[in-house]
Structure formats: structure tokens, C-alpha cells
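Pilot study result, target chain (339 residues):
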Amino acid sequence: MTPAAHLCSIVPPYVLDHLAEQGHEPAQRSLALDAAHRAARLTALPVKAPAHQLTRIIGDAHHTQKTPGATVRKEGGAPVADGSVNRAYDALGDTFALYQDVYGRHSIDGNWLALDATVHYGVKYDNAFWDGSRMVFGDGDGVIFNDFTVSVDVIGHELTHGVTQYSAGLDYQDQSGALNESCSDVFGSLVKQYALRQSAAEADWLIGAGLLAPGIQGVALRSMKAPGTAYDDPKLGKDPQPANLSDYVDTSDDEGGVHINSGIPNHAFYLLATALGGNAWERAGQIWYDTLTGGTLAHNCDFAAFAQATVAAARARYTDASVATTVIAAWSQVGVSAT
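Predicted structure:
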């Protein structure tokens, strides 16, 4: 049976709430759509027999709220005139490449799941989401947000919710939900780094770079290098992410702060990757991948349990004891005990 999926969108609800309170109509409509998606109790659709290769189909919703939309590009098809279609197509391929080439995973389910997407969803829809079976992209409103296909890390982020869905199945609530979001940020960033062949030192460690429209005071939705600094804008508000467990935000909003508190494990990964050096998708990414897919995580695990699992994964994978020691140190720097 295909596992159930929670609606996972890239723009946190507190960002859209802040905009909606100021009367920003696209944010108000986007919040209403997101609420309708969640109420639909999304589950992954039955899949066809695996093709044993990368398979992509891009649909165009033509600004309706219907998916999959009209097919506009299939696997192996030539680029089309629509940049949103081509960006989605390419980023789906970049995500597949990271998981296949680096971790030996055959698509996000491990069994050659087709990577499908729908672009031009809704009217000025300020979000992108994974619905359990496909990616869906809004065009943004052009005032606060640009087209949601512009950031490859956003696409890698959303597809990684599928990896989590098919592996650890982390509950989308409280600390396990923040870990769910953080793993998507980690591998979303690694998709971009692998596509660009950037080392940990060269990477920007931003999630959603390019999404904010001109004039917005910010660089992205989140920063793994410096949580809490991605934006500070009169319209958007200030990035609320903490970087340390001592600043954990205890809230009933956002499923218990899943988008806010993900800054803590995000920063731990950044510290590990930069301390180990080289390419982050190698040792640091391998440890996180082994942890996420190793079958040892409880679906409701907290930060400490996840941290301890990463140490165990490091020890199982690497004979060099300094690797596990570096993992412990990274978690310690964000206030989480990994021992």
C-alpha cells in the first residue's frame, strides 16, 4: 500500500498569515487553497508499474486548481517555450540524480516512482507543494513571491517529503515534524549543491533563494547557515527560526512550529557539513540519508533521538571515529545531546 502523505508546502503558514493580515489578496487566496488541500486528506495515488528509469511528466493547470493539467512535456521531450515547464522538468531530474547517483535510490520511493509536476496552478498562488504523488507549483504574485519553479532547492525540498513519506514516515507535528521539514531542507540544499558541484564551503545554504520578488528585504525563505536571518521585511515580517534548542519555539501554530524549529537541526547539518569539509552530499549527506532510510527512527522521534541515530549511522558507515565525534559536536553546538 502506498503511504499516506501530509500536505507539505514550501512557504510556511505564518508567512502567508502575516501577509494576509495586511490585506494581501494572493496570500489570502493561497491560505484558503492550502486549507482546502489539507482538508482533502491527501493520499498518494496508485502508481503504474515502474519503468526502471527516470520518468517525468509536466502538466499545465492553466491557472485552474485542477491537477495534473494538460501534459506539456514528457520524459525525453525537447525544451518548450514555457520557462516554468523547463525549470520544473530540469529540477525533477536534478533531484533524481542526487538520490540515484549518490545514494543509489531509484527515485523518491526507491522503486522508480515517476516524478510528475503541475505548473501554473491557481491564480497568483503563493506556494508550491508535494501532494503525495506530484509536485504542484504556483506562479507567485510577482510582488512578494516569484515563480516557484525558480529555486531547484525548493523542488528538491518538496520531493524529499516523498522520500520521508516512503521511509521514516516522520509525523508532521512538533519535533518530528520539524525533523521532517529539516530533512527536506537538507536534501533540497544538497540537490542544488550536487547540480552545481559546489562544496560545502561554496554553497549558499539558502532555501528558496530567488523566490522573493525585487524590493523584498531578504535573500530566501530560510538559511541553514544562519537561521533567523533569511528575511526581515515590513511585509513578510522577520525570519523567526531559532538556531539553538534553547530558543525552541513552543507553539500550537504551524503543526507545532514545524517550519520554525526546523532551523535547529538545519543548523546542526550545516555545522557538520562545513566541519567535515569537501562535498556535503558525501559524508554528511550520507549520514543523514542512512538515518532517514535506515528503518530505526520512530515516526514520532524527537531531536535527541534523531541526533543519536545520526551518530549511530556515522559509526556504522565510517571506521574513522572522528566522523562520529564531529556529528556529536555539531549537535552539541545547537543544544541537542547526541549521546
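One observation from the pilot: The longest helix spans residues 174-196. A full batch analysis is planned for the follow-on phase.
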